[in-house]
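Final report, Chapter 2: Outcomes

The project's central promise was a pipeline that accepts a single protein chain and returns its three-dimensional structure in a standardized token representation, suitable for archiving and comparison. That pipeline is now operational. To close this chapter, we reproduce one record exactly as it appears in the project archive, with the input sequence first and the structure output second.
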Amino acid sequence: AESGVTIATQYTEPQSRPAFVSTTVNLHHQHQHSKNNNKRRSQKVGLGLDMVEEGVLRVTSLQPYSLFCDTPIRVGDRVLSINSVDCHNCPSAQAATNFLQKLQNHQYHHNNRPDAGCVTVVAQVKDGNPSLVSTTITKPTPDALVGIVLSSSSSSSSSSPRRRHIVVKGILDDGLLVNSLLNVGDRLVSINGQECSTMSVCEATQMIRFAESTVTLVTMCKPGMASVVSTSTTTTGGSFDEEVAAYLLATTTTTMDDP
């Protein structure tokens, strides 16, 4: 769904974690609780980052009860982008941390944007399954528009009968998945941990639509074809700091209360 740097990987059978993880959290969701207990989450992003080598930004810690603590993001994952700003040319972990801190300030989000009040982190998993992508979003409200269109497709081979699958037909520009790694044609493997092999398109759509808070989709590239995963860059073509500045400028809302 994003544009910019692409990574093409070949289809393989499922194994381990997905190789790519896209997680969107909402900074202003006031009713989130940790899935492990009833303690209310903080509104902090809670990602500890470190530049282990030039151009490689990794997650080094996850703060308990933070917005990212129960998401598919794990310590050791490589951060590819933050809110579609490419991290390959990030000069330091502090620069990325500063960007996350600025995103926590509500004045940097325009109410008319689908990603208003959200932080989306795209990460690469070491030794993950290169044919799988995990996409997680946190709804600001139960009825928030996720923005995915599903359809049914079928496949067959000489060794197996024809089987039907649920595939991504479209990603809406005004939905929460606009900055995710989902691509049209991806096959839906699971929704919130439930396999989709026996679901109808209607059942899958309703499960996504009526999820109260978090939706996690695991998708697979079409068998026999490459899966293209993108980390988006801004149009400036400049340094990380320049692209961050361009993003913040494009998303800043000026109000009468601003100094």
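Archive annotation: The CA atoms of residues 90 and 240 lie 5 Å apart.
This record, like all others produced under the grant, will remain available to the consortium after the project formally closes.
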